[in-house]
Amino acid sequence: MMPAKGLYLLSTRQNRSIATGLGILVVLALTPYWAEAFGGSYVVSLVMKAMIFAIASLSLNLLIGYGGMVSFGHAAFLGLGSYVTGIAITEGMTDVIFILPMVLVVSGLFALVTGAISLRTSGVYFIMITLAFGQMLFFTLSSLAHYGGDDGLTLWDTASFFDTAFFQYDGGLFYAVLIILTLCWGFVSLLSGARFGRVLRAAKQNRMRVETMGFNTFHYQLLAYVIAGMIAGVAGFLFACQAEFVSPAISTWQRSGDLIIMVVLGGMATRNGPLLGALFFILVEEGLSLVLHEWRLIFGPLLVVIVLFANGGLAGLLRRLGVEE
């Protein structure tokens, strides 16, 4: 049994981490107000994009950080979510109460099938098979000639909410993204701290030992894979709503690589790492591209330096400063 002092320290660290995460979300909620001094609607749109990728990063952190499952095809779920949204809107089904369940079902089924196959492998084989599934989906989306093929699909209508124009205004969409991000952040935090998360982390360290204790690790990992896929599908839905355009490019392996970088950069298996990693990646990438033509020459080495010297990512850096778990 853990000593009282250990429980107190653990509780203190968790409370500090939760407070940090809530602080980040509050700052994001105030974006439309403070952004007026830095570019107005452009900054709001950029922060909204970062929040959408933070949702996708939260889902991938469930796989990589807590489950040790390095998926190089996670962007496929972004593509699925965005294309289900785009096709539904194009065919006249614009209400979110119909689109969102469709996104969850399609993403969940795709994750269930591909996860059941991929999880029969491990290590580099798991990486390669998830990459293969991701590329299969990319080429499938590219072959949809009726919906733009390689060129993508422009959405001439916007999503509605109970027949209202809530999603048609930047402010409405911004706070919809923020609410969904907050819900996903809270859900993944609860999940990782529950028995499900503990079994997942234990299986990451020693799968055989966990199985001898009576846990079916395959079922736990598959459920994590499905949950992560559904959350990433929701991120794809939001991406389509913001961009009013969908393209196969969002499902490429390069985009999956970006998501992995966001998770590692922020700090794997941490509550706030995906938030920090996605915000840093998107905002710094955009900032450098505005002032430098060859911005990638700076951005790449910068990421390498942070990963090498900020042990535990940005969340680890905050922990050493005393403001993180």
Distance between the termini: 21 Å
The amount of helix comes to over 70%
In what range is the share of β-strand residues? Answer: under 5%
Counting DSSP H or I runs of 4 or more residues, the number of helices is 14
**Helix/strand structural class:** mainly alpha
Overall structural domain count: 1
Total number of strands: 2
**Average of pLDDT:** 90
Largest sheet: 2 strands, antiparallel
Radius of gyration: 20 Å
Shape: globular
CATH fold name, please?
ABC transporter involved in vitamin B12 uptake, BtuC
Strand order of the largest sheet: 1-2
The low-confidence runs, each spanning 5 or more residues with pLDDT under 50, are: 4-10
Tell me the quaternary state.
Answer: single chain
CATH architecture: Orthogonal Bundle
The succession of helices and strands, N to C, reads HHHHHHEHHHHEHHHH
Describe this structure in words.
With 325 residues, the protein is mainly alpha-helical. The protein has one domain (23-29, 39-320): Orthogonal Bundle (ABC transporter involved in vitamin B12 uptake, BtuC), CATH 1.10.3470. The chain has 14 helices and two strands. It has helices spanning 4-29, 31-34, 41-66, 75-90, 96-118, 123-142, 170-193, 195-205, 207-212, 217-243, 253-266, 273-291, 296-309, 313-320; strands at residues 153-154, 245-246. A two-stranded antiparallel sheet has the order 1-2. It is globular, with a radius of gyration of 20 Å. It starts with a helix and ends in a 5-residue tail after the last helix. 42% of the residues are buried. Mean pLDDT is 90; it is low at 4-10.
